[in-house]
Design goal:
Two copies of one chain form a homodimer. Chain A has twelve helices and 17 strands. By secondary structure, chain A is an alpha/beta fold. The termini of chain A are far apart. The relative contact order of chain A is 0.14. The A-B interface holds A 19, 300, 302, 304-305, 313, 317-325, 328, 330, 332, 334-341, 346, 349-350, 353-354, 357, 359, 362 and B 19, 300, 302, 304-305, 313, 317-325, 328, 330, 332, 334-341, 346, 349-350, 353-354, 357, 359, 362.
């Protein structure tokens, strides 16, 4: 296991859980699910069960360095990679890749977002181990594909051929295509076909394999980092990264490599997964739904004549009284109260309205 | 004018504007209407236009003494009458009556609740002056009766005979009956008849007249205060009042005297009045309704797809975002958030539920 590493990507700035998440405190640093741990902490603890802590790295924005330090105090500074700007996942992975190459060129690395919900941790770890095994024995870029349970239009999909499903029987299968988020009609076809899996954004590969593919499909990006790798692990690292990122395109690893490579493999996974990208998805994943379909994350709460609603308050010592709502979200924080229909379009509209209003400071 | 006094009754403990009003801070001490002044301050200022400040007295609960001092700093301590317990209006009026008798037996006094909304102050003062005039020249208990604009079931009504309406033409008319709150059917008959007025709870009378009627209809109460009146205006006043109130029944002046006396007169009033007993009534009296029927009393507020709703927040530096509500009340304070249909029964139910819940401390 010494050669196995994990890179947790924690650079997101999304305002999808606004008003609980903010630009200054994005989702990965919050305990949105009420588990008692932040997403980042959950993700770290999950990998720490199969990897030594010193093999776990976190990539995040410079402005979040303090938060990561606070939430993962056991993590050494050298294990926290600070991006000067967000440039999507390809530059983030390139940074981690060249940093690890300089330390342990024979290594295998898992890359995982820091803000996803995983229901069955044991199943997850089993799949991750299988992915490590596969990546170590094959020149492959392995991804965990989630067996879809509904025609979700907020996720990317990965296709394998149906013949390979028979051939590989639950093990890793060669990927046919990576696809972007489909419309509903297409999503229904995807799910019905049985050939499509949700793209979890979790990858496992040997450093040598991903490096090769990056050099092939993103030669400039690879050269940028490779040319300066002597600066990594030195005092000059931050300056170098600042320059490298300045020239980087904003591009995802999916688009930069996975859609193009012929080395993509998929391990089908059924551990229960959501990227928790919306309040609606949080509501759907909640295990504490009462018999009227309400989820209440408030200590002092009186709910009546209400159904299908999510009520959440992060303000201390506050009584929340709710009556007569149907399919609503009520979110109360220290400085924002939002009462809004639960459907995704409505919540999205609220955040859009906010951005264009005089109250942009609350974002 | 030297002989004219006003007694402002500010002892109410109502939780009708819960969660803004509390047991520790009832409605009369709040600026519920957003006028910039509390009800008590409004009431005081109104009477101060026609009476010298030293002729204005406030009766309130002992626990509210500090609040009254703070809100009416110009009021001398001797002008604040402190009740040890709430005993409804008859004992409150008896206390004020015997206190004034000891000071100025020839006086005329107005009695007014401290927590009513009055739209046209000039008309109100004109009617009060007329009531003073009438009470000074006749042995009458004068009340201001509000010309009803709808069959309200939350108010008591006062009946005059239709013949007296012709006879007295807008001046004071002898009262036929005082009635309790009617049901809707009865209220509709009342309004249609043209003989009924809303009971505003505002009275004007000479001390000698009300004393006589009190002695006649509440002899024990009168004797209780009369026997100990030497203690008034002395250091022994509080002790005496404590004892007197201990023996007092809880009884309104309407029930104790007005329904029985033959000296009741009514001055018809149309200055725009509400006892503001419910959030619904506040909504109805609001002058700042937007074109979708919303009233918003929040500094930072984003309201969309919402109609007929009242949104109010007393918490500082908080953005309130409301979407998709119809005929709702959203009230946010430092320690309570309430989202509830606007109708009176729903709000009442919330407060009842609260009383019986583990969260009674928020009352």
């Amino acid at each position: 296991m010494r050669n196995r590493y994990c890179v947790i990507m924690a650079g997101g700035v999304g305002s999808r859980f606004w008003p609980v998440s903010r630009n200054s405190m994005p989702k990965q640093f919050l305990d949105i699910t009420g588990s008692g741990k932040t997403f980042l902490r959950e993700t770290f603890d999950r990998f720490a069960k199969i990897l030594p802590a010193e093999n776990i790295f976190v990539v995040t924005g410079r402005i979040y360095a303090d938060i990561v330090n606070r939430q993962l105090p056991e993590l050494k500074d050298e294990n926290i990679l600070l991006e000067p700007y967000g440039r999507n996942t390809a530059p983030c992975i390139a940074y981690a890749l060249y940093k690890l190459l300089a330390k342990d060129p024979e290594a295998t690395m898992a890359v995982a977002p820091s803000d996803h919900w995983i229901k069955d941790e044991d199943l997850f770890l089993k799949d991750i181990q299988a992915a490590f095994d596969h990546a170590e024995h094959n020149p492959s870029l392995v991804t965990l594909g989630i067996k879809p349970t509904r025609p979700e239009t907020n996720y990317g999909y990965i296709q394998v051929s149906s013949s390979s499903q028979n051939k590989y029987k639950g093990g890793a299968m060669p990927v046919k295509t990576f696809t972007e988020k489909p419309d509903l009609e297409m999503a229904e076809i995807f799910v019905k076909s049985g050939e499509f899996y949700w793209n979890s954004g979790i990858f496992v590969w040997k450093l040598s394999t991903i490096r090769e593919e990056l050099e092939k499909y993103m030669p400039e990006l690879a050269a940028q980092f490779d040319g300066w790798r002597d600066a990594l692990w030195t005092d000059g690292e931050d300056d170098f990264i600042e320059k490298a990122y300045g020239d980087c395109p904003k591009i995802s690893i999916d688009y930069a490599v996975m859609e193009k490579t012929d080395k993509a493999w998929l391990i089908p996974a059924e551990f229960g997964w959501s990227d928790l990208g919306t309040w609606e998805s949080l509501y759907r994943c909640a295990s504490d739904v009462d018999d009227r379909g309400n989820v209440s994350r408030v200590e002092d709460c009186l709910v009546s004549d209400t159904e299908g609603s999510l009520v959440l308050s992060t303000e201390k010592d506050k009584l929340v009284v709710i009556k007569g709502l149907k399919d609503f979200i009520v979110v109360n924080t220290d400085d924002v109260l939002m009462v809004c229909p639960r459907d995704e379009a409505a919540v999205k509209q609220v955040v859009t309205d906010l951005s264009m209003s005089d109250f942009n400071r609350y974002k």
